[in-house]
Amino acid sequence: MINRLVARVLGLEVRLLACQARLSARTDPEALHDLRTTVRRLRSLLRPLRGLPGVEQLEAAASGVGTLTTPLRDCEVLAAYLQKHDQPEAAQRRMTQMARAYPQVAASTELGQLLIILEAFPRFLRAAQRQGLVKGLGKRIEKRLGKQWKKLDEALHDPAHDRHRLRLLIKRVRYGIEAYPELDRLPKAAMPRLKSAQSALGDWHDCWQWLARAEQEADLQPCVAVWKTRMAEAEQRADRVLEKLDKSCFKS
Predict the structure, then answer these.
(1) Are 126 and 177 members of one domain?
(2) What's the pLDDT at 159?
(3) pTM surpassing 0.70?
(4) What is the number of structural domains in the chain?
């Protein structure tokens, strides 16, 4: 287990360094998204390891990068939508803003701190191994992954469930499975259902967020009517997907 963890940490470090270089050079529009996905995978790897040396500091550093980049990614997604839907001036304003932001993220204190701690983390894992702190680690990770699945189960069966919270829980379960595929004990249908639910809730979340922004950003007003319709459709689609997830993966 420790060998696999170290290998995964090193792989994530390489990916983060590549994302940093791409952001600095502004070579492609997917660099920020790839950076955030890699950080999310790292956080999913770390969550079941809480209590081991170095995990708390690494989680805090990863969270800092997430906080820094969330509004930037939101702006990036919005700009892409506007460009695709015949709002070139509104899109260009945001794309210009993003072009300035990419190298700033690459040179940020938050990303630099994450990379420094991440580089040292394999040594913490090896030290914990020598000190006997990782005995039964596989079972402990499996137990914590099970708790995440149970939380999602409870949230799905809450009549007043919060779509925001459900979206986060689904992402957490999905990336937890991907971080520890050898410990996956979920039904076969789980992963495709989770991906579909995440996609549907993501569409709903985009519209919800864009409508909130439109109250402050006048150039978004031409899109409001479409977003309201799209949000209602996304709500219905999300409810159908969540129902399928519940029926195929949970005991009622």
Answers:
(1) no
(2) 79
(3) yes
(4) 2
